[in-house]
Amino acid sequence: MTDFHFTALFASALLLTTLTKLWLARRHLNHVQSHRSIVPPDFSAQIDLAAHQKAADYTSTKTRLGVLNVIFDATLLLLFTLGGGIQRLAEWSLMTFNEPLLQGVAVILAVLIISAILESPFNLYRTFVIEARFGFNKTTPMLYLIDTIKGLLLGVVLGLPLLFGVLWIMEKMGANWWWTVWGVWVGFNLLLLFIYPSFIAPLFNKFTPLQDESLKARISALLQKCGFTAQGLFVMDGSKRSAHGNAYFTGFGKTKRIVFFDTLLERLSPTEIEAVLAHELGHFKRHHVIKRIASSFATSLIFLWILSQLMQAQWFYAGLGVTVPTASMTTALALLLFFMVMPAFSFLLNPLMSYYSRKHEFEADAYAAQQTDAHDLSSALVKMYQDNAATLTPDPLYSTFYDSHPPAMVRIAHLKSLTR
Fold first, then answer.
1. Residue 233 dihedral angles phi and psi, to the nearest 5°
2. pLDDT at position 253, please?
3. Spatial contact of 322 and 370, defined as CB atoms under 8 Å apart
4. Residue 272, C-beta contacts closer than 8 angstroms, at least 6 positions apart
């Protein structure tokens, strides 16, 4: 392949992906607004028109911001690649640092920092304008700043050594470096799964043991029935940042713990909480977590092999507007360019990933219906849709691309079919 051909291929893929995202967003906006005036019949007894319209407006507002974000991301990617941004950063790094490994790390960090700074207005607007307008945001500017600083420090402590290690392996381990990098990546992610519940999550939220004895007894009985052991039952101060509610289990092996948002406990009845937990346990009992981890690791291995082939091709760099200044810079630029442009080529595969995730959600719902009353899970889900202002009427095609969970009407209908 020539430089010109790869440039044309990249530009075509980026254009197709961007136009598809914009088209899907337009479909979604039109669909949501066209169903704004009437609550779907299956939900009319539990959700009033005002709540339904709030969800429609919240969804539409987020989608409009998403449109701007799509255009911005595509423009920024073009500026970094064909616009010469990465080329200039590489030249700056060569003039600033003497150590080859440090030169490569500096280029990658520069791109990440610049991207984060330029993306920050979207995040700020999302948090302090949209979320606040619809009554969800509880984050103060100071808390937002503290969270940002903590995230940066965590990235330095965990991410920087990983980046140095990966670049060193890619340079020193020969043609089959991708096997070793994959092993390091797998080990790193497994380590995160172990340390996240006890060391990382508490940096951002407070976790306290569940105090409600009757609810604790009910949950303990469900855990014993399902054969699930956990380190504990915890309540997270989710209301500190947002009015949104959720529940999840996290960790791996002996570090597993069950976490409820305090906002969720305030809203749901004990039987509904039990049903939501049964759904989460369904993911565990059906081995969804292991399957997703294995799928992620398999995908990363394939990507690393593809990268190992591309980094040997001069047209890969030149086709993206980069002339490699020195041989020592090849590794870092290959890694950076590959993961920056990959989304432009892989976006159209999103429906496959969404289908896989939705299949797991249906299986977890079915498991919950076996362990608890399916009506309780349906009731809990409807309350969660209402409290989170999640639209009941997403555009089906938009949802196929973006939503990891089935649309509300499809999911509730599936639960009803399980009770017949």
1. -110, 120
2. 65
3. no
4. 376, 377, 379, 380, 383
Q: What is the pLDDT of residue 232?
A: 72
Task: Name residue, tokens 């987020």.
Answer: 62
| pTM of the shown model | 0.90
Q: How many residues comprise the chain?
A: 420
Which among 192, 104, 207, 116 is positioned nearest to 154, based on CA atoms? 192
Nearest C-alpha neighbor of 112 from the set 340, 376, 366: 340
Task: Give yes or no for residue 157 having a pLDDT over 70.
Answer: yes
Q: How many CB atoms lie within 10 A of CB 146?
A: 13
Residues identified as active-site = 280, 365
Q: Which amino acid is at 219?
A: I
Token output for 403? 């939503």
Taking a C-beta distance cutoff of 8 angstroms, is the pair 281, 247 a contact? no
Those residues whose C-beta lies under 8 Å from the C-beta of residue 287, and which sit 6 or more positions away, are none
Cβ neighbourhood burial of 161 (10 Å; 0-12, 13-18, 19+) = exposed
- Residue among 256, 254, 257, 272 at smallest CA distance from 215: 272
CA 136 to chain centre: 20
Which residues, including other chains, have CB under 8 Å from residue 277's CB and lie 6 or more apart?
Answer: 219, 222, 247, 258
Digit-coded pLDDT (tens) for 398-410: 999 999 999 989 9
Which residues, 6 or more positions from 156, have their beta carbon under 8 angstroms from its beta carbon? none
Contacts of 377 (CB under 8 A, 6+ apart): 272, 275, 276, 278, 279, 365, 368, 369, 415
Q: Which amino acid is at 239?
A: S
78, 86 contact by CB (below 8 A): no
Backbone φ and ψ of 248, nearest 5°: -160, 165
**pLDDT exceeding 90 applies to what percent of the chain?**
60
- For 207, the enclosing helix (H) or strand (E) is strand 207-209
More confident residue, 107 or 235: 107
For the segment 49-67, the average pLDDT, to the nearest whole number, is 95
Kind and range of the H or E element at 111? helix 100-125
Domains of the chain are: 3-173+303-340 (no CATH), 203-290+353-418 (3.30.2010.10)
Cα(280)–Cα(274) distance, integer angstroms? 10
